[in-house]
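Meet my pick.
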Amino acid sequence: QVQLVESGGGLVQPGESLRLSCAASKSNFRIYAMGWYRQAPGKQREWVAVITSGGTRYIESVKGRFTISRDNAKNTVYLQMNSLKPEDTAVYYCNCAGLTSYRGLWDWGQGTQVTVSS
């Protein structure tokens, strides 16, 4: 069973930055496409960013502001979030991203809360 542990969330003002981390207890971590997802109150969870062997993809609303990266030696994936907006407020999760629709394939972790408010 894979464990995913997200961290790095917090309360920030609009325009500020946060860096999220997600550690995965998975052997051969490097071969898996990984994604960041978020769930805002009253909304469905959505994928935000994905990193695969072919590169990275982002939803339109975070392009140019968020950057996904990974350190395979540490079994960790990161999400650098700049120029944060109130609409980015959500619980953020990471997961292995399925090839179709980027559906999360492993058990979800507890997530990390990101709140953007003045």
